[in-house]
Amino acid sequence: MNYLDSPKPIRSGLVIVDPQRGTPQRVIVLQFNPDSLERSLAPQTAGADNAGDRTEALRLKGPAVETWKFTAELDATDQLDVAAPDGIHPQLATLEMLVQPSSAQIRVNQGLAALGTLEITPVEAPLTLFTWGSKRVLPVRLTELSVTEEAFDAELNPMRAAVSIGLRVLTVSDLPTGHRGAELYLAHLAQKERLVGGAVGGRLSTLGLGGGV
């Protein structure tokens, strides 16, 4: 097959969504797909809180706590046809604002505090989705954002950086019933269930076991 006919790889990224309307507010496409992903799932077992209760040993009280970690590479020199007077400052700022309230929101809360408001509701961030192909679209919360800037231009604008990103998948245990993020999580879980159906089953004899375990 001609190299030019090869399918263009899908990019991974983050989508910021209005949780009420479901409309994308911003799409962050990772410049390069990470070379590796670290995923961790911690089961939520009922027995963990009732160590002496034998009836709880096999019960699950909710979805597993799932976390993802990966490193995103940003490089302004890889886009020589695109003007980059600020280096990769804009890309870094876009990622950093995912874990920051806006200056306008902070000013509003400062104003409420100055008026003597006793209880100020914490700022609600928009719904963030992490996408890794069509089979993995996950509602997430950023838990870690670590930036290593590696090269600079004459004005000390960063030109290349490695960004370590940690994500926690938001489940129905984290979001209200009917929330768009909760529905997306259930769709993700259903996708996993469909994939299980495509797995080739093994045989007990392969494990050296008979018909009854």
Written overview of the protein:
The chain is 18% helix and 32% strand. The longest helix is centred in the last third of the chain and has 18 residues, at 180-197. The protein has one domain. With 213 residues, it is of the alpha+beta class. Strands 2-1-5-6-7-4-3 form a 7-stranded antiparallel beta sheet. The protein has 3 helices and 7 strands.
Keywords:
single chain, 213 residues, alpha+beta, seven-stranded antiparallel sheet, globular
Give, in spatial order, the strands making up the sheet with the most strands.
2-1-5-6-7-4-3
What's the oligomerization state?
single chain
Low-pLDDT windows of residues: none
Q: Quick one: biggest sheet?
A: 7 strands, antiparallel
Q: H/E element string? A: EEEEHHEEEH
First-to-last CA distance: 50 Å
Radius of gyration: 23 Å
Strand content: 25-35%
* Class based on secondary structure composition and strand pairing: alpha+beta
